[in-house]
Specification:
The chain is of the alpha/beta class. It contains seven helices and 17 strands.
Protein backbone atom coordinates (compact mmCIF):
# COMPACT_ATOMS: atom_id res chain seq x y z
CA UNK A 1 0.00 0.00 0.00
CA UNK A 2 1.41 3.40 -0.96
CA UNK A 3 0.90 6.15 1.57
CA UNK A 4 -0.42 9.42 0.19
CA UNK A 5 -1.00 12.76 1.91
CA UNK A 6 -2.61 12.23 5.31
CA UNK A 7 -4.36 15.64 5.29
CA UNK A 8 -7.11 15.84 2.68
CA UNK A 9 -10.24 17.78 2.03
CA UNK A 10 -12.45 14.71 1.63
CA UNK A 11 -11.94 11.10 2.71
CA UNK A 12 -14.06 8.38 1.09
CA UNK A 13 -14.37 5.21 3.16
CA UNK A 14 -15.17 2.24 0.96
CA UNK A 15 -14.51 1.53 -2.73
CA UNK A 16 -17.73 -0.14 -3.78
CA UNK A 17 -20.19 1.30 -6.27
CA UNK A 18 -21.11 4.38 -4.22
CA UNK A 19 -17.55 5.08 -3.08
CA UNK A 20 -16.12 4.92 -6.59
CA UNK A 21 -18.92 7.12 -7.91
CA UNK A 22 -18.15 9.70 -5.21
CA UNK A 23 -14.42 9.54 -5.98
CA UNK A 24 -15.04 10.09 -9.69
CA UNK A 25 -17.06 13.26 -9.10
CA UNK A 26 -14.63 14.61 -6.51
CA UNK A 27 -11.83 14.29 -9.04
CA UNK A 28 -13.75 15.58 -12.01
CA UNK A 29 -14.90 18.67 -10.14
CA UNK A 30 -11.43 19.67 -8.98
CA UNK A 31 -9.89 17.57 -6.22
CA UNK A 32 -6.78 15.53 -6.92
CA UNK A 33 -6.64 11.88 -5.88
CA UNK A 34 -4.21 11.42 -3.01
CA UNK A 35 -3.87 15.09 -2.08
CA UNK A 36 -7.35 16.56 -2.39
CA UNK A 37 -9.18 13.36 -1.53
CA UNK A 38 -8.37 9.80 -0.55
CA UNK A 39 -10.30 6.55 -0.93
CA UNK A 40 -9.73 4.00 1.86
CA UNK A 41 -10.82 0.40 1.29
CA UNK A 42 -10.56 -2.61 3.60
CA UNK A 43 -10.45 -5.22 0.84
CA UNK A 44 -7.30 -6.75 -0.59
CA UNK A 45 -8.37 -5.72 -4.10
CA UNK A 46 -11.16 -4.08 -6.12
CA UNK A 47 -14.77 -5.25 -6.24
CA UNK A 48 -16.29 -4.12 -2.95
CA UNK A 49 -18.69 -6.64 -1.42
CA UNK A 50 -19.16 -8.32 -4.79
CA UNK A 51 -15.69 -9.89 -4.61
CA UNK A 52 -16.91 -12.02 -1.68
CA UNK A 53 -20.07 -13.39 -3.32
CA UNK A 54 -20.48 -17.10 -4.00
CA UNK A 55 -19.51 -18.39 -7.44
CA UNK A 56 -23.02 -19.60 -8.29
CA UNK A 57 -24.27 -15.99 -8.15
CA UNK A 58 -23.87 -15.14 -11.81
CA UNK A 59 -24.73 -11.99 -13.71
CA UNK A 60 -27.85 -13.74 -14.93
CA UNK A 61 -29.13 -14.23 -11.38
CA UNK A 62 -27.81 -11.09 -9.67
CA UNK A 63 -30.13 -8.24 -8.74
CA UNK A 64 -28.33 -6.01 -11.20
CA UNK A 65 -24.95 -4.40 -11.66
CA UNK A 66 -25.25 -0.77 -12.62
CA UNK A 67 -22.73 1.24 -14.58
CA UNK A 68 -20.27 3.50 -12.82
CA UNK A 69 -20.09 7.11 -14.08
CA UNK A 70 -18.88 7.43 -17.67
CA UNK A 71 -17.59 3.85 -17.88
CA UNK A 72 -20.01 1.26 -19.18
CA UNK A 73 -19.86 -2.31 -17.96
CA UNK A 74 -20.79 -3.62 -21.38
CA UNK A 75 -22.34 -7.06 -21.86
CA UNK A 76 -20.22 -9.70 -20.13
CA UNK A 77 -21.19 -13.37 -20.15
CA UNK A 78 -24.31 -13.74 -17.95
CA UNK A 79 -23.01 -17.15 -16.83
CA UNK A 80 -19.80 -15.69 -15.37
CA UNK A 81 -19.72 -15.31 -11.57
CA UNK A 82 -20.70 -11.78 -10.61
CA UNK A 83 -17.74 -11.65 -8.23
CA UNK A 84 -15.31 -12.02 -11.15
CA UNK A 85 -17.13 -9.55 -13.40
CA UNK A 86 -17.40 -6.80 -10.81
CA UNK A 87 -13.88 -7.25 -9.46
CA UNK A 88 -12.53 -6.84 -13.00
CA UNK A 89 -14.85 -3.92 -13.78
CA UNK A 90 -14.13 -1.96 -10.62
CA UNK A 91 -10.40 -2.57 -10.98
CA UNK A 92 -10.48 -1.23 -14.53
CA UNK A 93 -12.44 1.79 -13.34
CA UNK A 94 -9.94 2.64 -10.61
CA UNK A 95 -7.09 2.39 -13.09
CA UNK A 96 -8.84 4.33 -15.87
CA UNK A 97 -9.52 7.34 -13.68
CA UNK A 98 -6.45 7.12 -11.46
CA UNK A 99 -8.40 7.03 -8.21
CA UNK A 100 -5.39 5.79 -6.19
CA UNK A 101 -7.46 3.69 -3.78
CA UNK A 102 -5.53 2.92 -0.59
CA UNK A 103 -5.87 -0.73 0.42
CA UNK A 104 -6.05 -2.77 2.45
CA UNK A 105 -6.89 -0.11 5.04
CA UNK A 106 -9.29 -1.00 7.84
CA UNK A 107 -10.99 2.02 9.41
CA UNK A 108 -11.21 1.62 13.17
CA UNK A 109 -12.89 4.86 14.26
CA UNK A 110 -13.87 8.32 13.05
CA UNK A 111 -13.71 11.14 15.59
CA UNK A 112 -14.11 14.88 15.49
CA UNK A 113 -11.05 16.88 16.51
CA UNK A 114 -10.97 20.26 18.25
CA UNK A 115 -10.16 21.99 14.95
CA UNK A 116 -13.37 20.61 13.42
CA UNK A 117 -11.65 18.09 11.18
CA UNK A 118 -12.66 14.46 11.17
CA UNK A 119 -9.88 12.06 12.11
CA UNK A 120 -10.03 8.62 10.47
CA UNK A 121 -8.08 6.17 12.60
CA UNK A 122 -7.04 3.03 10.70
CA UNK A 123 -4.74 0.06 11.03
CA UNK A 124 -2.34 2.00 8.78
CA UNK A 125 -2.35 5.32 10.62
CA UNK A 126 -4.59 8.37 10.77
CA UNK A 127 -6.01 10.47 7.94
CA UNK A 128 -7.46 13.91 8.64
CA UNK A 129 -10.26 15.30 6.50
CA UNK A 130 -12.60 18.26 6.51
CA UNK A 131 -15.39 16.03 5.24
CA UNK A 132 -15.99 12.30 5.06
CA UNK A 133 -18.10 10.27 2.64
CA UNK A 134 -18.84 6.93 4.25
CA UNK A 135 -19.54 4.18 1.72
CA UNK A 136 -18.99 1.03 3.77
CA UNK A 137 -22.21 -0.72 2.77
CA UNK A 138 -23.52 -3.72 4.72
CA UNK A 139 -21.48 -6.82 3.85
CA UNK A 140 -19.42 -6.64 7.07
CA UNK A 141 -22.55 -6.57 9.23
CA UNK A 142 -24.58 -9.77 8.67
CA UNK A 143 -27.76 -9.92 10.74
CA UNK A 144 -28.21 -13.10 12.80
CA UNK A 145 -31.64 -13.23 14.45
CA UNK A 146 -32.04 -14.87 17.84
CA UNK A 147 -34.36 -17.83 18.35
CA UNK A 148 -34.82 -20.29 21.21
CA UNK A 149 -32.83 -23.46 20.70
CA UNK A 150 -30.13 -22.01 18.47
CA UNK A 151 -27.33 -23.08 20.78
CA UNK A 152 -28.70 -26.61 21.07
CA UNK A 153 -29.08 -27.19 17.33
CA UNK A 154 -26.57 -29.90 16.37
CA UNK A 155 -26.37 -29.18 12.65
CA UNK A 156 -24.62 -26.50 10.60
CA UNK A 157 -25.64 -22.85 10.85
CA UNK A 158 -24.41 -20.34 8.29
CA UNK A 159 -25.35 -16.90 7.01
CA UNK A 160 -25.72 -15.66 3.43
CA UNK A 161 -22.25 -14.20 3.80
CA UNK A 162 -20.78 -17.68 4.41
CA UNK A 163 -22.54 -19.52 1.56
CA UNK A 164 -20.23 -20.94 -1.09
CA UNK A 165 -21.94 -23.76 -3.04
CA UNK A 166 -25.27 -25.54 -3.05
CA UNK A 167 -23.32 -28.72 -3.75
CA UNK A 168 -22.05 -28.63 -0.18
CA UNK A 169 -25.57 -29.62 0.92
CA UNK A 170 -26.43 -32.41 -1.51
CA UNK A 171 -28.54 -35.02 0.29
CA UNK A 172 -28.98 -32.84 3.38
CA UNK A 173 -32.10 -31.31 4.88
CA UNK A 174 -31.72 -27.52 4.83
CA UNK A 175 -33.92 -24.93 6.52
CA UNK A 176 -33.69 -21.55 4.77
CA UNK A 177 -34.82 -18.62 6.92
CA UNK A 178 -35.56 -15.27 5.29
CA UNK A 179 -38.05 -13.66 2.95
CA UNK A 180 -35.85 -11.93 0.38
CA UNK A 181 -34.48 -12.65 -3.06
CA UNK A 182 -31.34 -14.31 -1.67
CA UNK A 183 -33.48 -16.85 0.20
CA UNK A 184 -35.44 -17.63 -2.96
CA UNK A 185 -32.26 -18.12 -4.98
CA UNK A 186 -30.73 -20.33 -2.30
CA UNK A 187 -33.83 -22.53 -2.19
CA UNK A 188 -33.80 -23.11 -5.94
CA UNK A 189 -30.07 -23.79 -6.01
CA UNK A 190 -30.21 -26.16 -3.06
CA UNK A 191 -33.18 -28.02 -4.52
CA UNK A 192 -31.37 -28.33 -7.85
CA UNK A 193 -28.30 -29.73 -6.06
CA UNK A 194 -30.31 -32.49 -4.41
CA UNK A 195 -30.91 -30.95 -0.98
CA UNK A 196 -34.27 -31.26 0.76
CA UNK A 197 -35.38 -27.76 1.62
CA UNK A 198 -37.84 -26.07 3.98
CA UNK A 199 -38.53 -22.35 3.85
CA UNK A 200 -39.45 -20.14 6.81
CA UNK A 201 -40.51 -16.50 6.57
CA UNK A 202 -41.90 -14.12 9.18
CA UNK A 203 -44.58 -12.96 6.75
CA UNK A 204 -46.06 -14.60 3.66
CA UNK A 205 -43.64 -14.08 0.74
CA UNK A 206 -44.56 -11.06 -1.35
CA UNK A 207 -44.01 -11.52 -5.07
CA UNK A 208 -44.71 -8.80 -7.60
CA UNK A 209 -44.98 -8.81 -11.38
CA UNK A 210 -44.14 -5.12 -11.60
CA UNK A 211 -40.84 -4.62 -13.45
CA UNK A 212 -37.96 -3.16 -11.46
CA UNK A 213 -37.60 -0.06 -13.64
CA UNK A 214 -36.52 3.51 -12.84
CA UNK A 215 -40.01 4.54 -11.73
CA UNK A 216 -40.15 1.59 -9.34
CA UNK A 217 -36.72 2.51 -8.01
CA UNK A 218 -37.72 6.08 -7.28
CA UNK A 219 -40.79 4.86 -5.41
CA UNK A 220 -38.67 2.55 -3.26
CA UNK A 221 -36.23 5.33 -2.49
CA UNK A 222 -39.05 7.68 -1.48
CA UNK A 223 -40.40 5.10 0.96
CA UNK A 224 -36.99 4.56 2.55
CA UNK A 225 -36.24 8.30 2.62
CA UNK A 226 -39.28 8.96 4.78
CA UNK A 227 -37.80 6.76 7.50
CA UNK A 228 -34.26 8.15 7.39
CA UNK A 229 -35.51 11.74 7.42
CA UNK A 230 -37.38 10.86 10.61
CA UNK A 231 -34.30 9.30 12.19
CA UNK A 232 -35.69 5.76 12.03
CA UNK A 233 -33.65 2.70 10.99
CA UNK A 234 -34.13 1.73 7.34
CA UNK A 235 -36.62 -1.09 6.82
CA UNK A 236 -35.56 -4.38 5.25
CA UNK A 237 -35.09 -4.31 1.50
CA UNK A 238 -37.74 -6.91 0.71
CA UNK A 239 -40.39 -5.13 2.78
CA UNK A 240 -40.04 -2.22 0.37
CA UNK A 241 -39.20 -3.90 -2.93
CA UNK A 242 -40.99 -7.28 -2.78
CA UNK A 243 -39.67 -10.12 -4.97
CA UNK A 244 -39.92 -9.89 -8.74
CA UNK A 245 -41.93 -12.92 -9.90
CA UNK A 246 -39.88 -14.42 -12.73
CA UNK A 247 -40.88 -17.54 -14.67
CA UNK A 248 -38.21 -19.44 -12.72
CA UNK A 249 -39.69 -18.35 -9.40
CA UNK A 250 -43.22 -19.19 -10.56
CA UNK A 251 -42.05 -22.70 -11.41
CA UNK A 252 -40.49 -22.94 -7.95
CA UNK A 253 -43.85 -22.03 -6.43
CA UNK A 254 -45.68 -24.53 -8.61
CA UNK A 255 -43.19 -27.25 -7.67
CA UNK A 256 -43.68 -26.55 -3.97
CA UNK A 257 -40.08 -25.38 -3.42
CA UNK A 258 -40.94 -21.72 -2.88
CA UNK A 259 -43.73 -22.26 -0.37
CA UNK A 260 -43.13 -20.90 3.13
CA UNK A 261 -43.95 -22.87 6.25
CA UNK A 262 -44.48 -19.59 8.06
CA UNK A 263 -42.64 -18.02 11.00
CA UNK A 264 -39.99 -19.96 12.85
CA UNK A 265 -40.79 -20.51 16.54
CA UNK A 266 -37.65 -22.29 17.72
CA UNK A 267 -34.89 -24.68 16.79
CA UNK A 268 -34.52 -28.12 18.27
CA UNK A 269 -31.33 -30.23 18.36
CA UNK A 270 -32.39 -31.90 15.09
CA UNK A 271 -34.66 -29.41 13.36
CA UNK A 272 -37.20 -26.66 13.77
CA UNK A 273 -40.68 -25.93 15.12
CA UNK A 274 -42.83 -23.35 13.37
CA UNK A 275 -45.40 -20.92 14.74
CA UNK A 276 -48.30 -23.15 13.69
CA UNK A 277 -46.90 -26.00 15.81
CA UNK A 278 -45.63 -28.08 12.90
CA UNK A 279 -42.02 -29.25 12.77
CA UNK A 280 -39.34 -30.30 10.31
CA UNK A 281 -36.02 -32.10 10.59
CA UNK A 282 -32.92 -30.21 9.47
CA UNK A 283 -29.22 -30.87 9.10
CA UNK A 284 -28.40 -27.23 8.37
CA UNK A 285 -29.92 -23.77 8.80
CA UNK A 286 -29.12 -21.07 6.24
CA UNK A 287 -29.89 -17.65 7.68
CA UNK A 288 -30.76 -15.50 4.64
CA UNK A 289 -31.74 -12.73 7.03
CA UNK A 290 -29.97 -9.78 5.48
CA UNK A 291 -27.47 -7.24 6.67
CA UNK A 292 -27.31 -4.02 8.64
CA UNK A 293 -25.36 -0.87 7.79
CA UNK A 294 -21.69 -1.29 8.68
CA UNK A 295 -21.24 1.84 10.79
CA UNK A 296 -19.51 0.71 13.98
CA UNK A 297 -16.48 2.89 13.19
CA UNK A 298 -18.76 5.96 13.36
CA UNK A 299 -20.01 5.22 16.88
CA UNK A 300 -17.67 7.81 18.53
CA UNK A 301 -19.67 10.50 16.69
CA UNK A 302 -22.95 9.57 18.48
CA UNK A 303 -25.11 9.92 15.40
CA UNK A 304 -28.08 7.79 16.43
CA UNK A 305 -31.46 9.39 17.11
CA UNK A 306 -33.88 8.19 19.83
CA UNK A 307 -35.67 6.13 17.16
CA UNK A 308 -32.48 4.14 16.56
CA UNK A 309 -31.62 5.47 13.12
CA UNK A 310 -29.52 8.32 11.78
CA UNK A 311 -31.42 11.41 10.65
CA UNK A 312 -30.51 12.17 7.07
CA UNK A 313 -31.03 15.05 4.67
CA UNK A 314 -30.24 13.36 1.38
CA UNK A 315 -26.78 11.86 1.85
CA UNK A 316 -25.86 14.36 4.60
CA UNK A 317 -26.05 13.48 8.30
CA UNK A 318 -28.11 16.13 10.06
CA UNK A 319 -26.17 15.91 13.33
CA UNK A 320 -22.83 16.25 11.56
CA UNK A 321 -23.16 18.06 8.21
CA UNK A 322 -19.57 17.30 7.19
CA UNK A 323 -20.37 13.58 7.14
CA UNK A 324 -22.19 11.89 4.26
CA UNK A 325 -23.58 8.34 4.22
CA UNK A 326 -23.98 6.53 0.92
CA UNK A 327 -25.11 2.93 0.79
CA UNK A 328 -27.35 3.72 3.76
CA UNK A 329 -31.11 4.07 3.62
CA UNK A 330 -32.40 5.01 0.20
CA UNK A 331 -29.01 4.42 -1.46
CA UNK A 332 -28.49 0.91 -0.05
CA UNK A 333 -29.18 -0.74 -3.40
CA UNK A 334 -27.28 -0.94 -6.65
CA UNK A 335 -30.00 1.17 -8.25
CA UNK A 336 -29.36 4.26 -6.13
CA UNK A 337 -25.71 3.91 -5.13
CA UNK A 338 -24.17 5.68 -8.14
CA UNK A 339 -26.53 8.64 -7.81
CA UNK A 340 -25.91 8.79 -4.08
CA UNK A 341 -22.15 8.87 -4.61
CA UNK A 342 -22.55 11.79 -6.99
CA UNK A 343 -24.87 13.67 -4.62
CA UNK A 344 -22.50 13.19 -1.69
CA UNK A 345 -19.49 14.31 -3.72
CA UNK A 346 -21.18 17.46 -4.97
CA UNK A 347 -22.37 18.33 -1.46
CA UNK A 348 -18.89 17.72 -0.06
CA UNK A 349 -17.41 19.90 -2.80
CA UNK A 350 -19.58 22.79 -1.66
CA UNK A 351 -17.86 22.55 1.71
CA UNK A 352 -14.48 22.33 0.01
CA UNK A 353 -15.23 25.42 -2.07
CA UNK A 354 -15.92 27.37 1.12
CA UNK A 355 -12.93 26.11 3.09
CA UNK A 356 -10.50 26.31 0.18
CA UNK A 357 -10.69 30.10 0.17
CA UNK A 358 -8.90 30.00 3.50
CA UNK A 359 -6.80 26.84 2.95
CA UNK A 360 -6.52 26.21 -0.78
CA UNK A 361 -5.84 22.76 -2.16
CA UNK A 362 -3.38 22.53 -5.02
CA UNK A 363 -4.83 20.72 -8.01
CA UNK A 364 -2.22 19.61 -10.55
CA UNK A 365 -2.72 21.21 -13.95
CA UNK A 366 -2.28 17.78 -15.55
CA UNK A 367 -5.23 16.30 -13.68
CA UNK A 368 -7.17 14.04 -16.02
CA UNK A 369 -10.48 15.09 -17.53
CA UNK A 370 -11.42 11.79 -19.11
CA UNK A 371 -15.11 12.48 -19.44
CA UNK A 372 -17.88 14.97 -19.03
CA UNK A 373 -20.23 14.92 -16.09
Amino acid sequence: MSVENRDVEVAVIGAGQAGLSAAFYLQYRGLAAGSGFVVLDANEGPGGAWRHRWDSLTLGSAHGIHDLPRFELGTPDPREPASSVVTRYYGAYEAEFGLAVQRPVRVLAVTRAADGRLHISTDRGVWRARQVINATGTWDKPYWPSYPGQREFRGIQLHTRDFRSAGDFTGRRVLVVGGGTSAVQFLLQLHGAGARTVWSTRRPPEFTSRPFDAEWGRGVERAVRERTRAGLPPASVVSTTKILLTPQYQKGIDDGVLVSRGPLARLTPDGAVFADGSSAAADAVLWATGFRASLDHLSPLHLREPGGGIRMDGPRVVKLPQLFLVGYGESASTLGATRAGRAAALAALQGWSTSSRENPVTVPSSQSRRSTA
